[in-house]
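writing this on my phone so excuse typos. first protein, seq and then structure
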Amino acid sequence: MILLLSFACTSEAPPLITLEPELQVAPPILEFGQVGLLTPQTRNLIVSNAGRAELTIDLSLTNDQDVFSFEAPPNPWILERGEEQFLPVTFAPSTFRRYSEQLRFDTNDPERPTVWIPLRGEGADLPFPDIAIRPRTVEFEGPGIQSIEVRNEGEEALLISDLRLEGDPAFSLATDPLDGADTWPIAPGSSSTLLIDYAPPDEEGEIADLFLTSNDPDESPLQVRLVGNGGDDFGRPVAVIDCPGSVGLAGPRTIAIDGSESFDPGGFEPLRYQWSIVQRPSGSDVDIPLDPDDQSVADVYVDVAGAWAVELVVFNELDTASEPALCAFGAAPDDALYVELSWNTPNADMDLHLIEGTATDIFQVPEDCNWCNPAPNWGAGGSADDPRLDIDDLAGFGPENINIFDPRPGVYQVKVHHFRRNGDTGPVNASIRVWIDGIEQTTMPLSNLMEHNEVWDVGTIDMTYRMWFPGATANRDLPVSPADCFTP
C-alpha cells in the first residue's frame, strides 16, 4: 500500500485544458455582383463563436471609399460561446466601376487574431422603378371624389406595398388598389388612377396626407397633400420678389429680379420657380423670353422704356402653388432724347433714322444716324451729344432705338424707311415713341402703314425748347432702294 501511494504521488499531473474563443465568418468572400447606383444592396455575413470562451470583436474597413458599410454592433462586440449573429453589409456604388475592399475582424481568438473578409461589387446601370404622382397636392372645394395619377417612369416594375392616410378622417380611399394583396404593381411606362373621397362633416377646412410606400429607391414613401375647403391652417408656399422700383435705360439692358427669399412655412423645400412677364411696353420684343424662368433669379431683358410687370409663382416639393407675387416697375431712358421704332410683322426690315438739322433726306452723312451710320460725331464736346443706334433689327418686330444722352439745342428729324420686304408683300404698320427728359411725349405710339421703299417723315424734335412736333402721316417713295449703305 505504501508503495502504491508513493507511485501515485510521483506520477505526472494530467494536462490543463484552456477555454478559448474561436471566430468563424461565412461566407469567406462577400460578392455583391452588379448593383445599380440608386439601388444599394445589403447582404449578411454570418459571424459565430465556435469556441468555449467569450469572443470579442472589433470591426473596421481597410480603406475609405464610402461605398461599403456595415451596421455597427456594440463596441466591443461580444459573442458568447456557441452564439451566432448576422452582420449586415451594404454596397452603395457611386459610379460605374468595380469596387474591392476588405472588412477587418480584430479578435481575442488566439489562433486567428485578425481576419480579413474581401468585399466585392460593381456599380452598374441597372433599371429601377421611378414613381411619379400628379398632382402632389389635391384641393377639394366641398365634398366629392378626385383622382390622382400614379405613374411609373422607370424601367423596372413599380411595386406599391402600402397606402397610408394620416390626418383628418374626412378623407378616405374611394378604392383600395391593394385590396388585400401584398403589392400594387405598375408596369414601366404605365400609370394607374387612385381615387380620393372627401366627405367633410361641415364647411370647415381639413388637411390630410397620403403616403405611398414602394420599391422606388429614392422616393419612398412619397407624400401627397390633401386639402379640403381651403384647409385648416393650410400653409401655402410664399413667393417673395426683391423688386426694383425703376430701371434706367441707356439702351437695352438685362436686369436680375430676385425671388430667392421665397419660402414654404411647412418646410417642404426645395422650391420650384415659375416666372412670367405679364406686362411689357408695346414696342418690346416678345420673342425674347425670361432666361432663366425656372430659377430663384430671373434675367429680364428690358429693351424699351415703359411699364413692365413680372410675376412669380413658387411650388413646394408637394407641387403646392403659392399665390402669385407681382413685381411692377417702370423703365425710363437715362438719355435726354430717346426715339423708338417697332412694327407689326416679322417679315420686314424697317429702319429708324434721326437727322440733325435740316438735311433734306435720309442716308446723308454725317447728319443721318441710321443702321449704316450708327454712331456719328455730331459735336466737339465729346460723345454726350452724339447719337447712337442701340439696336438694328433686321427681321422684325423691333424695337430699334436711337438715343442722345445730352443733345445740343436745335432741330432733329425722325424718319422711318421700309428698307426690305423679307418676304412680306403687304403694308407694314410702323410705330414711333419719343421720350424727352424721361417723359414720353404721346400717350399712344404714332403709327403709319408703309409699303416697301417708302419713307415716313414722322416729325421734328426741337431740343432748344424740349418739344416734339409730329408730322403728317403721308409717305413718299425713296428714289432707289439701297442694297448697301450709300450717300444719294
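second protein below, same order as before
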Amino acid sequence: GIFSFLPQAQEEDVFAHFSTPHGLSLEGAAALFGGHYTRAENWETLRDALSQAQDREGWSLIEVPSNRDENLAWHRALWKTVAREWAASTL
C-alpha cells in the first residue's frame, strides 16, 4: 500500500489500478529463487521468522500482511505526533 501515501491516492478512478490486490502467493516467488518463505500473521510469528532468518543460510522472505487503510491512518497519526513533539522540543 505504499502508493496510498501519494497525492494520487485521492484520485480514486486512477488509483484503483495501483491498489488492486494481485492475489499472488509470495511463497511461490521465494521457492522459485531458492529462498525461505514465512507469512507472519502476528508479532510472535514475526519474531520467530526474523530469528530463524538470521540463523539460516541463504535468504528469507517474510510477508507481513496489513490493512492498507489502517496502515495509512497509523502512519499519519504517528507523523502528527512526531511533528508536535519536535515543535515542542524546539521552543
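Strands lie at 36-39, 60-63. thats all i got for now
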